[in-house]
Amino acid sequence: MNGFFVPGVNSVKIQTFNSYGNYTFMSETQAMESMIGGEYKYGFTTDIEYEDFPKGINEEIIREISRRKNEPEWVTEFRLEAFEKWQELEEPDWANIEYPKPDFQDIQYYSSPKNKSGKKAESLDDIDPQIKETYDKLGIPLEEQKMLSGVAVDAVFDSESIFTTFKEKLAEAGVIFCSISEAIQDHPELVKKYMGSVVPKGDNFYAALNSAVFSDGSFCYVPKDTVCPMELSTYFRINNMQSGQFERTLIICEENSHVSYLEGCTAPMFSKTQMHAAVVELVALDNAEIKYSTIQNWYSGDDEGNGGIYNFVTKRGHCRGDNSKISWTQVETGSAITWKYPSVILAGDNSIGEFFSVAVTNKRQQADTGTKMIHVGKNTKSTIISKGISAGKSNNSYRGLVKISPRAENAQNYSVCDSMLIGQTCGAHTFPYIESANPTAKVEHEATTSRIGEDQIFYLQQRGMDEDDAISMVVNGFAKEVLKELPMEFAVEADKLLGIKLEGSVG
Amino acid sequence: MLEIKDLHVAVEEDGTEILKGVNLKINKGEIHAIMGPNGSGKSTLSKAVAGHPAYEITSGDVLFEGESILELDPEERAHLGIFLAFQYPVEVPGVTNKTLLRQAYNTIAKEQGRDELDPLEFEDYVEERLQIVEMKKEFLDRSVNAGFSGGEKKRNEIFQMAVLNPKLSFLDETDSGLDIDALKIVAKGINQLADEDKAVCLVTHYQRILDYIVPDHVHVMLDGKIVKSGDKALAVKLEDEGYDWLTDLASVSVNGEPN
């Protein structure tokens, strides 16, 4: 099993890596093509290198971002309006996290694209040995390790045919899958109609900031009566890695359609910048189903939490049509700070929202994560399964809102929030909020807290497992309800990842 | 196979001494029974042999096949072929019996230089072993001990023993909580597993299980020491007369509670 490419039906995974002129893609057969320095022939318009972009944020900067991305006027306006709202908003401080407030004028809002001549690591020897070890444990092959580390890869394999197959397959089905920058150029009517329709530009502080300065992200459109022929993944578009600071993703699933989307990577991801604020919008029309799975393993900082990523994400799905379904599955293991509440607005009658989450915190990590299920339509149902695992000196909070609006007859919610503590110095908290304005609603909430004990570990050790394997087994058992929701090829790696994140955390 | 020499063991946390000089020798092919009232140190002895971190060896030694095992981690002792059937088997929710057993089996096999079994081979093997304790196949897919009755948990311990096939097994009060039918099945399983190359040490309150498993040696523990050893007849005498007649043999403990 390797980092990206695992055999599986309809899961040919191809990676475009490092936008702006460089891309690489690979197949499950490990074939890989690198055209480093070559011209990007699949449609990015921004293949010029900009090294210096001024720090800070103001109207001029936003216009400049938009100009450099060659955006139409309405996108520039979208950004400027968002900026205006952002200035009126306060940075939220209600979450159970503590961190020095960023200086927003000290951030560079347009990431300088790099190519081979840029400041990349020259070889794997330049990579933090701990990270290297993690790659090895996850079983990620050397070439992929290089790619993940941003080391230039010169190996050339013949995988053109696989890439073509993938493109053809999607095109045949009528599925549009490209970067949001491309979509703005090529499918402006769709982007205009849906962007900001789920997460409005002024929704919250970070969403407004993202709307003003978003760099790139994925766009997916599944037309009517279509089952997307393969699992889509950000691996297809790893370019986001370079521009992930203010990533923006938009997925639209038309009537009677279905799509499964995978985001992230089990291998640790780096960034030059500490602050990340992404926006993800999902729209499901009548009878449509969107399944969105994430594995987040951003750099979580050193033992004291220094240098880790601050991850402030707004993810929201809109079950716009009747009988539609949106399902979020997340495995959150990285980042110093996680502030994230993938939510579903259940507008269509009989629509279904699901949230399955495993959040692991260790060392000094802080996570405040959960969901919002907003029941608007009749007979809407939501399920929340949250598993928080805290170790070290970390702090792990679940925060969830279940809201039943007056016209949501017979709405149902079932929530489970389980916390597991490892050691004596970590914290686990749950903040469930229930607001029901309809007496026919049925809302159930269960919560448990447990601690991995010496006896549990000793029991498994007596059966031959070492301490780390024992912890891994207990934790994976605890998180099983959520892990089984992941696509197969992710599940095995997620399994390993949980073990790796918690190594040596007992005793 | 196992030799315990003047073993003194204290609780790690507060230093309370529990074992006060235990001597015991178990040869392969033998079945031993250690009996004694609550608090006499029987369970501590089996946990100390298995390497439970809550207990500190203050002096003495434990040799397995001639080598001291005191410096070994619990899993390393398991790799040597030492098994402990727990008095209170631990629940591991979300992990199936099969998953645990396969990982345990393969880890030990690997350490012992034997072939690991792939999932299909393991399936066949484990189903055959299930018959030893007359358990149903469905049992394999249940989470380890989660929601099991007391009797099922005990039976599951013997099933694990059957799968892992250890050289030396300490069975810590495996008989308590079993009804008579389950006791017979478990006893039959243990008899089947205890061959001439293996050794079994039953730790028990009652001689009831000894009606079905005939021990070669019976030892009585009182206040952290083995105060008397004998054959099966000793167990019968204990059943009839209790432990009082032996208390004189135990060294006087200043703070000792009456047993």
Explain this structure.
The complex is a heterodimer of chains A (507) and B (259). Chain A has helices spanning 59-68, 73-88, 129-138, 142-148, 160-173, 180-186, 188-194, 205-213, 454-462, 467-478, 480-483, 488-501; strands at residues 24-26, 32-34, 176-179, 218-222, 232-233, 248-253, 258-264, 275-276, 279-284, 289-296, 310-319, 325-332, 337-340, 343-346, 352-361, 366-375, 381-390, 395-404, 412-421, 427-436, 442-451. Chain A is an alpha/beta fold. In chain A, strands 3, 4, 6, 8, 9, 11, 13, 14, 16, 18 and 20 form an eleven-stranded mixed sheet that branches. Chain A has an eight-stranded parallel sheet with strand order 5-7-10-12-15-17-19-21. In chain A, helix 6 (180-186) packs across helix 7 and helix 10 (467-478) crosses helix 12 (488-501). Chain B is of the alpha/beta class. Chain B has a single domain (2-249), classed as P-loop containing nucleotide triphosphate hydrolases (Rossmann fold, 3-Layer(aba) Sandwich), CATH 3.40.50. Chain B contains seven helices and twelve strands. Chain B has helices at residues 42-50, 74-80, 97-111, 119-130, 150-164, 180-193, 232-241, and strands spanning 2-11, 17-26, 31-35, 55-64, 67-68, 82-85, 92-96, 143-144, 168-172, 199-204, 217-222, 225-230. In chain B, strands 6-9-10-3-11-12 form a six-stranded mixed sheet, with helices on both faces. In chain B, strands 2-1-4-5 form a four-stranded antiparallel sheet. Chain B has a two-stranded antiparallel sheet with strand order 7-8. In chain B, strand 11 (217-222) and strand 12 (225-230) form a beta hairpin. The radius of gyration of chain B is 18 Å and the shape is globular. Chain B starts with a strand and ends in an 18-residue tail after the last helix. Chain A binds chain B through residues 454-456, 458-467, 469, 473-474, 476-481, 507, and chain B through 50-54, 73-75, 77-79, 83-84, 86, 88-90, 92-95, 99-100, 103-104, 107-108, 111, 143-144, 160, 164.
